[in-house]
């Protein structure tokens, strides 16, 4: 199979979460350089919705990566393009740092609600306001930027159903907090509606990213450290999935998961090496 | 008025809903005070007053009842908070509370050091990010999630507001757990109230104005149930539930009449 496009998760693949900016994963910078010079198009695919692209780029630059804005595919630009093309007027409950991303839209008499990782903005008042905004819509539309269960707050590590793993994280740094999924679930329950999830593992999200690359799913591969969100999500959409043994990877998670990656790589370098050598 | 099903046994126990059945805010339902007295005067009937409350303590409920003209004792009242307290005591749980200050009065004396349970009622001031995160971490560590009930929303003076059910769902989703709901219409609620007076479901009747929470819930728990057409009752409510009410009464007085006639 010739790979014509690559999607790459950020946290746990390019760098590890930790104090401050965390630390870079060995040989990942070289792997990206190799991919960049190979000419195979790629996108960094993240569920991050609480930092702007600029901040994310700076963080990656700090670790030695050279990306530009269009290399990154994140939920906010994705939801903005949906809002534009469907002519919607959004009410947003997102992190203070990214509220301005939605300045361009008319937000009077809203026709959809955008819920992101709003962190401490998730107060009763704000949630109640969001609830009433949904009730005021003829046909309530709720966009959830990802639907993560919880976040390891030092980084942007989304954890799925992996309690063995998560408890370990929790005990070590005491920084595990609720993610947007909790509050999406609350509004879904209160209004008896289903949210449209803009983020991994939603198939729609992978599709929009592939459209951006102009490749079809069977010509593309996803590289990530989350067996459910990255690998499971990609495979459901028809992509191949390569799991890396960095980030949140543990042998126990791989063993107990119902998802079987197409390939398991030691790290991003190994994954890129596998792809490019297979290619030749 | 028509009899929907025939009671086989003599009624020995009556569970009575409060708001909408005996009173509406500070006004008694016409005839309810006198009918309650009739019920008390009748031989061999045991009463329990049962209600879903997520933010008011028993004391607050009682003082409203007294103000309204009812003569009801504290030990006769069984609320969803009582049910939660019983659950905590029976299983030796130490709670982290997301409850209003008034509701907390019903939990005095319960040890809450090093919590291994999360109790969620209606407490807008407690539903902030920090508390939600604290509750979530406790749940990840294996704590039991107890919901007073799972209302989606409730009516406030300024319109509808998010109910405890929404926040319970948020915690369930993120921690991958299921809450134990203790209020009406859970079968456990009715059985627990009943065990307080020692009755069996077949010889008990529940009287209430809420077709789903009072009547359907009680019937599903094996009790008999009378729906009264006061309070939140809306036309045709009796047809929206399954099984059908034992009896549909105009009001509490008619419900009492039905019981006393049956027992004659």
Which secondary structure elements does this structure contain, and how are they paired or packed?
The complex is a heterodimer of chains A (280) and B (264).
Chain A: E1 5-8, E2 15-16, E3 23-24, H1 28-38, E4 42-45, H2 53-62, E5 72-73, H3 75-85, E6 90-93, E7 112-115, H4 124-136, E8 142-144, E9 150-152, E10 157-159, H5 163-173, E11 176-178, H6 180-191, E12 196-197, H7 203-213, E13 220-224, H8 227-236, E14 240-244, H9 251-256, E15 263-265, H10 268-279
Helix pairs in contact in A: 1-10, 4-6
Chain B: E1 13-16, E2 23-24, E3 27-28, H1 32-41, E4 46-51, H2 58-68, E5 77-79, H3 80-90, E6 95-98, H4 101-104, E7 117-120, H5 129-140, E8 144-147, E9 153-156, E10 159-162, H6 164-175, E11 180-181, H7 187-197, E12 204-208, H8 211-220, E13 224-228, E14 247-249, H9 252-263
Parallel strand pairs in B: 1-4, 1-12, 4-5, 6-7, 7-8, 8-11, 12-13, 13-14
Antiparallel strand pairs in B: 2-3, 9-10
Helix pairs in contact in B: 1-9, 5-6
Structural description of this entry:
- Chain A folds into 2 domains: 5-75 and 200-279, HAD superfamily/HAD-like (Rossmann fold, 3-Layer(aba) Sandwich), CATH 3.40.50.1000; 85-197, HAD superfamily/HAD-like (Rossmann fold, 3-Layer(aba) Sandwich), CATH 3.40.50.1000.
- In chain A, a hairpin with a 4-residue loop joins strand 9 (150-152) and strand 10.
- Chain A has helices at residues 28-38, 53-62, 75-85, 124-136, 163-173, 180-191, 203-213, 227-236, 251-256, 268-279; strands at residues 5-8, 15-16, 23-24, 42-45, 72-73, 90-93, 112-115, 142-144, 150-152, 157-159, 176-178, 196-197, 220-224, 240-244, 263-265.
- Chain A has a 6-stranded parallel beta sheet, with helices on both faces.
- Helix content of chain A is 38%, strand content 18%.
- Chain A has 280 residues and is of the alpha/beta class.
- The termini of chain A are close together.
- In chain A, 50% of the residues are buried.
- Chain B is of the alpha/beta class.
- Chain B folds into 2 domains: 13-52 and 185-263, 3-Layer(aba) Sandwich (Rossmann fold), CATH 3.40.50; 81-181, HAD superfamily/HAD-like (Rossmann fold), CATH 3.40.50.1000.
- Chain B contains 9 helices and 14 strands.
- Chain B has helices at residues 32-41, 58-68, 80-90, 101-104, 129-140, 164-175, 187-197, 211-220, 252-263, and strands at 13-16, 23-24, 27-28, 46-51, 77-79, 95-98, 117-120, 144-147, 153-156, 159-162, 180-181, 204-208, 224-228, 247-249.
- A 6-stranded parallel beta sheet of chain B has the order 5-4-1-12-13-14, with helices on both faces. Chain B has a 4-stranded parallel beta sheet with strand order 6-7-8-11, with helices on one face.
- In chain B, helix 5 packs across helix 6.
- Chain A: This is Phospholysine phosphohistidine inorganic pyrophosphate phosphatase.
- Chain A: Pfam families: Hydrolase_6 (PF13344), Hydrolase_like (PF13242).
- Chain A: It catalyses: diphosphate + H2O = 2 phosphate + H(+).
- Chain A: Its EC number is 3.6.1.1.
- Chain A: Belongs to the HAD-like hydrolase superfamily.
- Chain B: One of its GO terms (molecular function) is metal ion binding.
